[in-house]
Write a structure and sequence with these properties.
Keywords: Membrane, Transmembrane, Transmembrane helix. About 50% of the residues lie in helices and about 15% in strands. With about 150 residues, the chain is of the alpha+beta class. A hairpin with a 6-residue loop joins strand 4 (about 85) and strand 5. The longest helix has 27 residues, at about 15-40.
């Protein structure tokens, strides 16, 4: 019985296979970037309530110490990201504007559209809608490609 090698059927690895491989990897990279883009454009950015009128001259640290309530998250005491004290009182109010730490991320959709606090869920929703559309298209176009 004669032994048949797989390379006898399809040919040896040559220039054509190399080009096909490079093309397939390149196309796959674009798909991977597309699936992971939400981690790049909508990362968790440090934010706090924006300084209100009359307090613009305070530094960020002074503003945080004097006007942001403290809270304990996982055993660590931090300043609130979503509330501030109004008019030097101890009454906390929800923020309507935010300031962001731009030391690492200069501009993200989180900063552009204020997707923090009560609106943070919109980031997760956008990723879920994308993945649902991705799954639906795979089912539909998978069936169409088999015909």
């Amino acid at each position: 019985m004669k032994k048949i090698e797989i390379t006898d059927m399809f040919g040896k690895y040559g220039a054509f296979q190399r080009v096909v491989f490079i093309f397939a990897v390149t196309i796959s990279m674009f798909g991977a970037y597309h699936n992971l883009i939400i981690t790049i454009v909508a990362p968790d950015v440090d934010h706090w309530c924006a300084r209100t009128e009359g307090y613009e001259n305070l530094t960020v640290e002074e503003w945080k110490e004097t006007h942001l309530p403290k809270q304990t998250v996982d055993g660590v005491v931090t300043h609130s990201h979503c509330q501030y004290y109004t008019n030097d009182s101890l009454e906390a109010t929800a923020c309507s504007r935010w300031e962001y730490d731009t030391s690492f991320y200069r501009r993200t959709i989180v900063q552009e559209w204020d997707l923090v606090c009560a609106d943070r869920w919109l980031v997760s929703l956008s990723q879920s809608v994308y993945m649902a559309g991705y799954m639906t298209s795979m089912i539909i176009f998978g069936q169409l490609s088999d015909r």
